[in-house]
Amino acid sequence: MEPVNIIGAGLAGSEAAWQVARAGVPVILHEMRPLVGTFAHKTGDCAEMVCSNSFRSDDDVMNAVGQLHWEMRAAGGLIMAMADRHRLPAGGALAVDREAFSQAVTETLRAEPLIQIRPGEITDLPADGNWIVATGPLTSDALAGAIRRVTGTEALAFFDAIAPIVHAETIDMSVAWEQSRYDKGESDAERRAYINCPMTRAQYEAFIDALLAAEKTEFREGETAGYFDGCLPIEVMAERGRETLRHGPMKPVGLTNAHKPQEKPHAVVQLRRDNALGTLYNIVGFQTKMKYGAQAQVFRMIPGLENAGFARLGGIHRNSFLNSPTLLDDRMRLRTRPNLRFAGQVTGVEGYVESAAMGLLAGRMAAAEARGTDLAPPPFTTAMGALVNHITGGAEAKTFQPMNVNFGLFPPLDDARGGRRGRKDRYPAYTQRAKDDFTAWLAAR
Ligand SMILES: Cc1cc2nc3c(=O)[nH]c(=O)nc-3n(C[C@H](O)[C@H](O)[C@H](O)COP(=O)(O)OP(=O)(O)OC[C@H]3O[C@@H](n4cnc5c(N)ncnc54)[C@H](O)[C@@H]3O)c2cc1C
């Protein structure tokens, strides 16, 4: 049988290789480390965790990432099995002994007769064969160049400049209102496409003070700050002058406060819809290097966001990722070159768990193809399905930025209460529905 070739033995590629082999299909796993390094990886092991040693919450009832753990375990995932074996005490989180974990992944893959690990960098995209590209946020320059030649230069980003994303239900609409600047748009929906949060002069001044005082993260060695031209962090804009933001992303022009039409806001923070479901909104132009704790505090000073729940906080990192909503089909294949499937962080998911989950799915899909069958993704009521649906179609392509799994990606339930207090009912209902639907998806194979 023709093998599946996988480029990159990180979190996604290792899981993909395991899934392909479990389906009885041979695998060649190409890994450039230790021959060619990256600024973040330190070893030649598979599935190296480059920073934190945590797979985040293991609560599969109240937490979306915990639900994703559950699905990966149910699907016989290697990453979860090795994480469970090398677990460290960490409260409700799944933290691991990172060295023991990645050594165990490496040894398990090496011991599998259907898997051949082949050292070396792949520098071009193969024209035929069944391939999975799982080269991660630090895809080597040569391969990134090849991807850009195939997808177009705009379609592969080198940095993510992430603005925070808010759960729509947690925005106080008695303060905020829906309106596009100058009421622009053909349809009523377009004229109401943004959510606006007004600020008085005093609120604006206090907000600028908080931005300037907030703790920031530094770039690591090897990360360049070349993004600075097009995409300044808000705190850097604030440092350039107290009025800069009021003339930039917070300008108050073309907007009328629906609750107080006579009162001209001094500044306005705008939020833009981030997914087709309308459950998530990003704060426009608010990419930031503030530390996470500081971000939540500072952003909750914005009128209307006092009780905001964040689906993800902002950040700016070195990160190669595709504009997947325009480039990939729902089988994670490049539309223009369907022999190439993408998996992991390079598809625009964010985090160890999400990357491994996309590897799991891509591996199963590639194995199905090698066997002459087809595998549809899990329904988007599951954590894995919600995530793959988001990156391959549900997300706004124009503003696409890497995404963590979160309940905002799940289709709403008709009968569960909304708002912050409704979470106690809703989250268990989401995760129960996800478990039922994931189990049915697995059983249908
Ligand atoms: C500095 C930094 C810190 C991070 N911190 C965290 C964190 O704390 N928590 C978290 O959840 N996520 C973190 N991430 C994101 C993390 O990288 C991903 O969650 C995860 O590693 C992605 O898995 P992956 O398999 O897609 O990529 P990786 O795990 O990076 O795997 C990609 C593999 O492909 C190989 N490769 C690249 N190009 C080629 C090529 N041309 N030929 C052959 N092999 C190649 C690489 O050597 C690597 O082994 C961080 C990322 C960075 C860059």
UniProtKB/TrEMBL annotation:
UniProt record similarity statement: Belongs to the MnmG family. TrmFO subfamily.
Keywords for the protein's UniProt record, in alphabetical order: Cytoplasm, FAD, Flavoprotein, Methyltransferase, NAD, NADP, Transferase, tRNA processing
Main location: cytoplasm
PROSITE patterns in the cross-refs: GIDA_2
Pfam hit, one: GIDA
GO biological process: tRNA methylation; tRNA wobble uridine modification
UniProt xrefs under Gene3D superfamilies: FAD/NAD(P)-binding domain
Domain MnmG N-terminal span(s) in chain numbering: 4-373
Gene behind this protein: trmFO
Organism: Paracoccus siganidrum
Residues that, per the record, bind FAD: 8-13
Name of the molecule in the record: Methylenetetrahydrofolate--tRNA-(uracil-5-)-methyltransferase TrmFO
Top-level lineage group: Bacteria
Subcellular location(s) of the protein: Cytoplasm
The keyword Metal-binding appears for this protein: no
Reactions that this protein is recorded to catalyse: uridine(54) in tRNA + (6R)-5,10-methylene-5,6,7,8-tetrahydrofolate + NADPH + H(+) = 5-methyluridine(54) in tRNA + (6S)-5,6,7,8-tetrahydrofolate + NADP(+); uridine(54) in tRNA + (6R)-5,10-methylene-5,6,7,8-tetrahydrofolate + NADH + H(+) = 5-methyluridine(54) in tRNA + (6S)-5,6,7,8-tetrahydrofolate + NAD(+)
